[in-house]
Amino acid sequence: MMYKLVLMAIACIFIGDAAYPQEDVPNLKDPKMIAAGHDLFLQKQCSRCHGEDGKGGVNLARRDLDPRGVFQSIADGRMGSGLRMPASRDVLTDEEIWKATAYVMSISQQAK
Amino acid sequence: MGKLIFAASLALTCLLSTATVAPAEGPGTEDPNNWPQYNRTSNAWRYSPLDQINKDNVNKLSVAWIAQGGDITMGIQETPLAIDGVIYSITSGNRVAALDAKTGQEIWNYQPKLDPLTKKVLFSPYSRGVAVGDGKVFIGTVDGRGIALDQKTGKEIWQVQLTDFANCHGCNFTSPPVVAGDMLTFGSTAGELATQGKIFGVEAKSGKKVWEFNTIKDDPKSWPGTSGKYGGGGAWMPGTYDAETNTVFYGTGNPGKDFINEDRQGDNLYTDSIVALDPKTGNLKWYRQEIKQDVWDYDSAYEVLLFKKDGKDLIVHMNKSGYVFVLDKNDGSIENIWPVSDLKNFVKDIDKRTGELIGRVELPMNQETLICPSTFGGRSWNSGAYNPNTGLWYNNVLDFCGYLKPVAQKDDPKDYGTGHIGASDFGRLVMAPDGRKPGRLDARDPFTGERKWTHEMDVPGFASVLTTGGGLVFNGDPTGILRAFDADTGKVLWSFNTGSGMRSGIISYAVAGEQYILVPSGWGSYAAILLPPLFPQLEKVPAASTLIAFKLPK
């Protein structure tokens, strides 16, 4: 029981950690940031599972996404749906993750 | 007292299970009621001699029990084992369970605490099976450990860290070890990793590591300059242990970076090869490289089948290119080479006598080249099955292609989620240019490749095949349909919707006088991520991790 409580507390700390205050979200509409994000998307092989344009494999353009959720998906990875996306926290810097987020947002449904 | 009752009931179970059937004798028929290792027998045929379920009654099959494997991440990829009335199963996150083979009831389960780094690496958290021997259940973990459990209780007996997990780009184990006498051999992932793939020899009793075999040969002719440092290779499927010659045969993985050969202008030994190792020492007895200086990601990690034919001891072995090598078991010399499909274009052909690649297609940098078969191969890693009664080898052939585009990439073994492949993906998949169906189940002579029958599919098969003494072939597809075929003619005799796609190994066993067909169902893996653009039917296939046991009604 105690153990479970501690686990919960740790989980909460992590979730808290990932929720960035508004002012920390960089300007995701900056074309330079989007372009750098696409370079990274190819270099880090996000394209391996999402296609070079984000529309192959698991199609990101069809998803309704918000920037914080995208940041968190990239940082902590995705599991549970039967598919798996590796976590990138500490493998990519926060700045790099935001760049990738900018690119993903530029192709997602929301951007239209 | 409890022990006594247990022993008595065990004896009774054994008695009952031996009373089942008396199938014909011969290679591949030993231990008929069990499925004691990955490919059932040490000749790796995936043939169950059981014949209670046959062509006449297969359409009466009904569900005996269903068990859930837990976490569904990457689906279920295992071939479960069945030994003396107990199923040994491994599912996502290396969760191991022992189940009553008659009821599916769990007897024990075990799950190791995995290194959190497993969330970041390329190959995780699936496993393709467990091994059993010496009263223990053995697993290789996705954080690079070997672990032994008590076969009766599931309690951990020993564990040993084998790969340098954090420093080898996350190289790990996604397959079970091979029990080779009193030794175990573990083959690591590596082809897409900035590392040198190894095979490890471990004492089954104690877990003590005795040797390592490096699949990257230390030889500047084979690997000019520093190109071998991150040469990849590895052996990510279980090998075959041959007690007769005390040899373990492994197929090895591809060289890295997968699609760029500029700096590795040599043979790149021992990638894409069969290596014959002494399990006591790890000494190399012989090797046969199948794909020299590979740039198409054609691992040779698949199952090694053994045959005795016309006084010869033969190996039959397919690699990802779809070419089948028929070799002398004792020295690896070539008897024949044949392709499972005529779609291939990466070479004009492979010389049947010398094994030379004739007219190979190189990949220019930053430019797409159409290569057939795709990086999924002419067949996936899932094993075929050979039936000694029909003399046919049944395989799921993949007939589609991909555009490969090499791009420059830095070497970085800490960039865990990025493949050391020299490209931004594994190729843009496309259907075959001639418009043929993308897959089929083929029945062929394993030595000549002569085809007896074929069953074409709109969505190709990605699961291992089972064939039985009842004259049947069982095959599962990615949409979830399980089919039973007449092994002689390819006629579909029965089908069943399992509710999720299949990527694993169907087995058969008998307990208390009844034959079972055990089917793991649960779509997942890279196939589930990459195939939907080519096969829209797969877009909506739900994931799962389920074992479904079938038998005839009483």
Describe the model.
The complex is a heterodimer of chains A (112) and B (554). Chain A is 52% helix and 0% strand. By secondary structure, chain A is mainly alpha-helical. Chain A has one domain: Cytochrome c-like domain (Cytochrome Bc1 Complex, Chain D, domain 2, Orthogonal Bundle). The longest helix of chain A is centred in the N-terminal third of the chain and has 17 residues, at 2-18. Residues 5-21 of chain A have low confidence and may be disordered. Chain B is globular, with a radius of gyration of 22 Å. The model of chain B is unreliable at 1-20 (pLDDT under 50). The chains are: A mainly alpha (112), B mainly beta (554). The A-B interface holds A 42-45, 47-49, 51-52, 56-59, 76-77, 79-84, 86-88, 91 and B 72-75, 119-122, 124-125, 407, 409, 414-419, 421, 423-426, 428, 522-524, 526, 528-530, 532-533, 542-544.
Radius of gyration of chain A over alpha carbons? 15 Å
Overall pLDDT score of chain A:
83
CATH class of one domain in chain B: Mainly Beta
Strand order of the largest sheet of chain B: 1-32-33-34-35
Number of helices of chain B: 2
Most extensive contact: A-B, 25 and 36 residues
CATH superfamily of chain A: Cytochrome c-like domain
Q: What kind of sheet is the major sheet of chain B?
A: 5 strands, mixed
Task: Give the termini separation of chain B.
Answer: 34 Å
Overall structural domain count of chain A? 1
Percent helix of chain B: under 10%
**Element order of chain A: H for helix, E for strand:** HHHHH
Q: What is the SS-derived class of chain B?
A: mainly beta
| Rg value of chain B | 22 Å
Strand count of chain B: 38
Question: How many individual β-strands of chain A?
Answer: 0
**Cα shape of chain A:** globular
CATH architecture of one domain in chain B: Beta Barrel
Mean pLDDT of chain B comes to 95
| Quaternary structure of the protein | heterodimer
Features:
heterodimer; A: 112 residues; mainly alpha; 5 helices; B: 554 residues; four-stranded antiparallel β-sheet; 2 helices; 4% helix
